[in-house]
Amino acid sequence: MKSNRPPVAVQRRLYPIKEAAVYMGFSPWTVRGLIWKGEISHINVAGKYFLDITDMDRWIENNKTKFTF
Predict the structure, then answer these.
(1) CA 50/CA 42 separation, integer angstroms
(2) In angstroms, what CA-CA distances link 66 with 5, 26, 61, 62, 63?
(3) Does residue 53 surpass a pLDDT of 90?
(4) With helix as H, strand as E and coil as C, how does the chain read?
(5) What gap in Å lies between CA 30 and CA 22, rounded to an integer?
(6) Using CA atoms, how far apart are residues 9 and 2, in angstroms rounded to an integer?
(7) What is the mean pLDDT of residues 60-65?
(8) Does the model's pTM come out above 0.85?
(9) Which residues of 5-39 are buried (b: 16+ CB within 10 A; e: fewer)?
(10) Interatomic CA distance for residues 31 and 17, integer angstroms
(11) Residue 6: inside a domain, yes or no?
């Protein structure tokens, strides 16, 4: 029996490095550097790195600076 309900949009939580780089506005190598330095958490699945969107958002918020005189 087919449902007439529209599909539900689900926001992904994990992003591979290339997509995480686009989300954060960095190059993939910059994201790799953050991972290798231990500055941002990651998940390693079968040799591929994934970043959690909540970790990316937290890293961005924690690294904001305001210019002061």
Answers:
(1) 6
(2) 47, 20, 12, 12, 10
(3) yes
(4) CCCCCCCCCCCCCEEEHHHHHHHHCCCHHHHHHHHHCCCCCCEEECCEEEEEHHHHHHHHHHCCCCCCC
(5) 11
(6) 18
(7) 94
(8) no
(9) eeeeeeeeeebebeebbeebeeeeeebbebbeeee
(10) 7
(11) no
Q: Are 10 and 53 in contact (CB under 8 A)?
A: no
Total domains in the fold of the chain: 1
Residue type, 39: E
pLDDT at 1: 64
CATH number at residue 22: 1.10.10
CA distance 20 to 34: 12
Tokens of 41: 């958490």
**Which residue range(s) make up the domain with 44?**
14-62
